[in-house]
Design goal:
2 copies of one chain form a homodimer.
Chain A: H1 18-21, E1 30-33, H2 45-53, E2 60-63, H3 72-78, E3 82-86, H4 92-99, E4 104-105, H5 112-119, E5 127-135, E6 141-143, H6 150-156, E7 159-165, E8 211-217, H7 231-249, E9 260-262, H8 266-274, E10 283-286, E11 289-290, H9 292-300, E12 303-308, E13 310-311, H10 315-323, H11 325-329, E14 332-334, H12 337-340, H13 343-349, E15 352-356, E16 359-361, E17 366-367, E18 370-371, E19 375-376, H14 383-389, E20 392-396, E21 400-401, E22 406-407, E23 409-410, E24 425-428, E25 431-434, H15 440-451, H16 457-470, H17 483-491
Parallel strand pairs in A: 1-2, 1-5, 2-3, 3-4, 5-7, 7-8, 9-15, 10-12, 11-13, 12-14, 15-20, 16-23, 20-24
Antiparallel strand pairs in A: 5-6, 16-17, 18-19, 21-22, 24-25
Helix pairs in contact in A: 2-3, 3-4, 7-8, 8-9, 13-14, 15-16
């Protein structure tokens, strides 16, 4: 049994149940788990750890690629298994534990966790739990639908637990390109100079002696929870495409554009979906996650290839992807997130970065993470890796939330994840503000008039005019700068009462 | 005359006065001028432009490396010559014009201006004005005490004006290493894998036909305006050194440390000066500017070599440097600021980044630029290039300013240049907060207890405790988050009245 999945016969003796494997953990350990945007996460060990924690204390530092599927994050958090969590999550139950202060959450740039582990800035990983489609004859671990930080975890962990998922087809083998930079300061250049390139191995190399357990699973990734587009996301897509057409016309890029990155979620997915009706051809993606839209663009032929660290699809698109894997395998590369998001590579390739803002202010500072300035939503993810180092940094958002009670365009961002220095273009369904080469006072006018919801424009204009009385590079009325957020908490809306 | 300085005889005919050269400009042009932290700036053309603006409208977009010396920025701004300015400045008169809204100031990461010019995100440079020690036989421009963006300006400008400064010794030739990355997206790796390495040419290559004027000058750079250290900067230096000793002891780096970067200014200079009494040996610098302290460390032998984009010294140290140039030439490399600050190189080498904060908040967000959240001080400079991409990012500040009326540790930064994601260590004269791997709630306690001035700790604790009642990943009382800054404006102090 499983000879095609476990091709090194001596490892057969490491086959065990998840319950047995869960005994390899000890209270206080640091655990690295595969999984990135609900793709390629371990399916059995999280539940086994929850079960173990019913009987004895088991508090872990849990590091992943990004968010886990299968409610694993929430189940482990609710069981008290997760003491510390990094670098990203998107689970409602875990989010509650984070915001109540029960779980310490370290919100990191997705390219940096591996670097901090390597440098010793973070405690080393004790146990790695990696979902795989197979273990090769020489002990290589072939990942499933994401790579994330798995290679780094395997490199560092004293014990490696491999979950072989029979639901992940063997045909995924060959999709991955595993390359890790050498430790600093003696590191060479990362030899990746175009999105297509493969620079590593197709499996994660590991000394087989460190494989402490192999657990068989047979369940699919959680499907993407991106919602279908709507009139507003269509409008945002239209503004983005018109802007990019302008860039091509101005000679700043060719009709193949520059390599595209798009963040996780509904709006970015809808914008990419909108590219199907665009005039661009032979595009490439150099992103961290591929959603349904990327597959659609590969199918339409407009996207020549796509590089990422994870593939997160709807159930229907997942089946289509698996059914046509032979075809996609030549046009998709899955890399460690350290490489998909690496500043060196992102800067070199000149990425167009498209990410979602929770809110932004009239000067172009972006909040990607904190609802009301205090409560964590998901995390910054890779948005900073791409926005800082790409050639063009676009942030998109609907202009209002909660039926208009919240304006996404505010006087001052209540939390800043991306500073004015890193934001080139802001887009809502109302329009686009091209901030390149503009000073804050010039940006304010554009952002208010092009991006804000018309219901909020008068009070934004009034704020800005009052702020101008105090002068400055970035005029503000500090007493009122965060008053909109405070008003929402007390009055249920950011809208000011009519004068 | 000048045969040693102008080695291509045909160019002798381009010799002219600054007044004549000033006629090459037209109203509305974009001008790229050499100069970085008061070093290597053009000495004659700024005054000639001011003179010309007395008689006719002359409003320019002025792009430099960083700050100019000789009051040039202020004189040009006061004469109305500067309509737009980027990417950095430090002049009192220009600052007033910026904060009054008369000059549009675009505050940029110092590595990015060149990239934006190359990509066409900024309007191209019409005229470049470059201080040089010589023009070579093949038309190469040999820069003086800084490289900055000069090579990029020369590459792009239709007309190049060279100021040959006789006060800058010919012996500076050979100090520089001029390398520019290719345009994206077809760019290879930057082949620089250690701080010592030379990867380019010793002069800026230019088609001699584009050299439109050569102006002779004979005046020195403005001396550094860094103040001598004091008891507080000594204490900060002590905390930084003890921290670095801990890193060596923990095995996270060797006794040569990692390549050091230190920002411009009094505190960073004093911290580096403090390294003379440290146990570290064979250190290297990979920084953007070398101050007196770098020369002292080269003299003491602790610093093996230093790479930067500029050398800004006190008058006395400048003379010492010139007198011993043959010795230093083997141990100093001056690079374009795009390379000295390049994310690719900074990340690869694993820089220790040491930069100055104006203020920081209890969660680790840093304001480097805006006094009171609104008024520009100097600009972000290269701090973001290094803090984001280096291995360790330290920010230093005295705990209070204005005789204690302003706390540098505040509930919420009134402007954010460096987010919590990019700040590893905070230091004041009171102590050091090592934030690595910590969640915001954990950071708050450390920052308040280790870094804040004791006079402000009670009210910081009270703020944090009240904020905790509202919960969240990053607890805040939005109504009070910026109240300290507002109180300073009305009451002249951030200190709360005794209850």
């Amino acid at each position: 049994m499983y000879e095609d999945r476990i091709r090194r016969p001596a490892l057969m003796e490491k086959l065990m149940s998840a319950e047995q494997a869960a005994k390899l953990f000890a209270d206080g350990m640091t655990v690295g788990m595969s999984g990135f945007t609900r793709a390629g996460d371990a399916k059995a060990l999280p539940a086994a750890l929850v079960e173990r924690a019913r009987h004895e204390p088991l508090r872990l530092t849990l590091i992943t690629g990004a968010s886990l599927g299968n409610d694993s994050d929430g189940l482990m958090a609710s069981a008290g298994v997760v003491a510390r969590r990094l670098p990203f999550q998107s689970d409602a139950a875990l989010r509650r534990k984070i915001n109540s202060g029960e779980v310490m959450f370290i919100d990191q740039h997705l390219s940096e966790t591996a670097e901090q582990l390597r440098s010793g800035d973070l405690a080393p990983v004790d146990v790695a739990v990696i979902e795989a489609v197979a273990i090769t004859a020489d002990g290589g671990i072939v990942p499933s639908m994401s790579v994330g930080n798995s290679a780094n975890f395997v490199l560092q962990a004293k014990k490696v637990i491999v979950e072989i998922n029979l639901a992940a087809p063997l045909a995924l083998e060959g999709l991955h390109d595993i390359y890790l930079p050498a430790p600093r300061p003696r590191r060479g250049a990362i030899p990746l100079i175009n999105a297509w390139q493969r620079i590593g191995t197709s499996a994660i190399q590991v000394d087989p002696a460190r494989i402490a357990a192999i657990v068989i699973t047979d369940s699919p990734d959680s499907p993407s929870n991106a919602l279908p587009g709507d009139a507003e996301t269509d409008a945002i897509a239209g503004h983005v495409i018109a802007f990019l057409e302008g860039e091509v016309k101005a000679g700043r890029m060719g009709p193949e554009l520059l390599p595209l990155q798009a963040g996780i979620g509904t709006i970015a997915n809808a914008v990419l979906h909108g590219l199907i009706d665009s005039p661009f051809r032979d595009m490439t993606m150099y992103s961290e996650v591929l959603q349904d839209s990327a597959i659609e663009l590969l199918d339409s032929g407009q996207l020549a290839m796509a590089s990422a660290s994870s593939i997160t699809l709807s159930a229907k698109m997942h089946q289509h992807f698996i059914d046509n894997l032979e075809r996609y395998r030549q046009r998709i590369v899955l890399r460690p997130q350290e490489i998909s998001n690496h500043p060196e590579v992102v800067r070199r390739l000149g990425i167009i970065a498209l990410n979602t803002a929770l809110e932004f202010d009239i000067y172009g500072n972006v909040n990607s993470t904190h609802v009301g300035g205090t409560h964590m939503m998901n995390g910054i993810g890779g948005s900073g890796d791409f926005a800082r180092n790409g050639q063009l940094s676009l942030f998109v958002s609907k202009s209002v939330a909660k039926g208009g009670a919240i304006s996404s365009v505010v006087p001052m961002a209540s939390h800043v994840d991306h500073t004015e220095h890193d934001v080139d273009v802001l887009v809502t369904e109302w329009g686009l503000a091209d901030l390149r080469g503009l000073a804050p006072r010039e940006r304010a006018v554009l952002i208010i008039e092009n991006c804000a919801h018309p219901d909020y424009r008068p009070q934004l204009r009034a704020y800005y005019e009052e702020a101008l009385l105090g002068g400055g590079q970035t005029p503000h009325v500090l007493e009122k700068a965060l008053s909109w957020h405070a008003r929402y908490k007390t009055a249920g809306t950011m809208l000011q009462p009519a004068a």
